[in-house]
Write a structure and sequence with these properties.
The structure is a single chain. This protein is mainly alpha-helical and 187 residues long. It folds into two domains: 116 residues, no CATH class; 59 residues. Strands 1-2 form a two-stranded antiparallel sheet. β1 and β2 form a beta hairpin. α1 packs antiparallel against α2 and α3 packs antiparallel against α4. The longest helix has 50 residues. The radius of gyration is 33 Å and the shape is rod-shaped.
Length: 187
């Protein structure tokens, strides 16, 4: 979607840092819980079996759970680290590509809600919500035109009332209405 100043190009990867951090932490805690459960179950179910191995040139017979526990823990820690790194990268990518336009959309909608009817939602052409942004821009333009027409009519009535010596209360109310529109909307 283009704008007079050109298309908006987002360069910030951390859209909502608190959300991203919470998501990554929750995901990693869930993964850690899964690792702990699977390691515990593996250890529990292998307790009734024996494994022979060589340690320091000696044949040692241990329960399978005790024999494999160190390897399982190291493997799980490496997996946790790699998955955490992948989660961070994917979260940043998804935030930038999907949540980013929504974050931009939210910021610009707040400005429109504050009465700035000159605002246009500008997103990149490849963003998923460009059609919605275009519809919103059409709605803002329509509101802008209608409010401008109302403001012009109020100004015309106010000037006409002043020229025709209308009651002072009517002129004051028209002035208040005009001022109220000017204070609440940027058109």
């Amino acid at each position: 979607m283009s704008h007079a100043a050109g298309s908006y190009k987002r360069r910030i990867f951390f859209i909502k840092k608190e959300f991203q951090i919470r998501f990554i932490l929750k995901f990693c805690l869930l993964l850690l819980a899964g690792i702990a459960i699977s390691t515990g179950l593996l250890f529990l179910f292998s307790q009734d079996t024996l494994t022979s191995s060589f340690e320091q040139s000696r044949l040692v017979i241990k329960s399978t759970g005790q024999a494999i526990l160190p390897s399982v823990i190291y493997t799980n820690l490496i997996t946790l680290g790699l998955v955490t790194l992948a989660t961070i990268v994917v979260t940043l990518f998804v935030s930038h590509k999907i949540a980013g336009p929504m974050f931009r959309f939210e910021k610009e909608l707040k400005q429109v809600a504050e009465g700035d009817l000159t605002k246009r939602v500008v997103l990149r052409k490849k963003d998923q919500i460009t059609d919605m942004a275009e519809s919103l821009n059409n709605m803002i333009s329509s509101l802008h035109e209608k409010l401008l027409d109302i403001q012009t009519d109020v100004e015309r009535i106010r000037q006409s009332a002043s020229r025709q010596n209308a009651p002072k209360e009517l002129i004051e109310e028209l002035n208040k209405l005009h001022q109220n529109m000017a204070n609440n909307f940027k058109i």
